[in-house]
Amino acid sequence: MEDIELPHRGRGNGTVPVSHAPKSETTVVEIKGGALAGFYVYGLINTSDRLEQGRMLVKHNLGGHRVRAIVPREYTHLKVKRMSNGSPFPSWKIGFRAAGSLPKWVKSVEGRHPDVLL
Fold first, then answer.
1. What pLDDT, on the 0 to 100 scale, is given for residue 118?
2. Is residue 37 packed enough to be buried (19+ CB in 10 Å), middle (13-18) or exposed (0-12)?
3. S-S: 99 plus which of 26, 36, 65, 78, CB 3.0-4.6 Å?
4. Which among 32, 21, 20 is positioned nearest to 101, based on CA atoms?
5. In angstroms, rounded to a whole number, what is the distance separating the alpha carbons of residues 78 and 57?
6. What angle do CA 102, 74, 40 make, to 5 degrees?
7. Which three-class secondary structure state does DSSP give residue 97?
8. d(Cα 9, Cα 11) in Å, to the nearest integer?
9. In the predicted model, what is the mean pLDDT of residues 21-45?
10. What is the H or E stretch that residue 41 is in?
């Protein structure tokens, strides 16, 4: 799989503004956690007149692997919340990409974690 660039970085709880793809495209987020990182990632609507946490998009439970998810267009930010029984300051990296720019797979794909494929 071709990795997505991960320019947003943090430790522990945090928020990241979503860099949405153009309106005709679907936005994909890729998240990588540190080896001992356990955290949840939620969609967040954070505008001048509304602050609302949306549904969980990703659960990252230990291991330095990458996971991908679709980001619904209504979310303006992503909220990272550490697991209560995990590391107090889990490290994470986040990046966004248009789904149409991801490589297509021809025959079959194997992996250990959910991924977004075209």
1. 47
2. buried
3. 26
4. 21
5. 9
6. 70
7. strand
8. 7
9. 90
10. strand 38-47
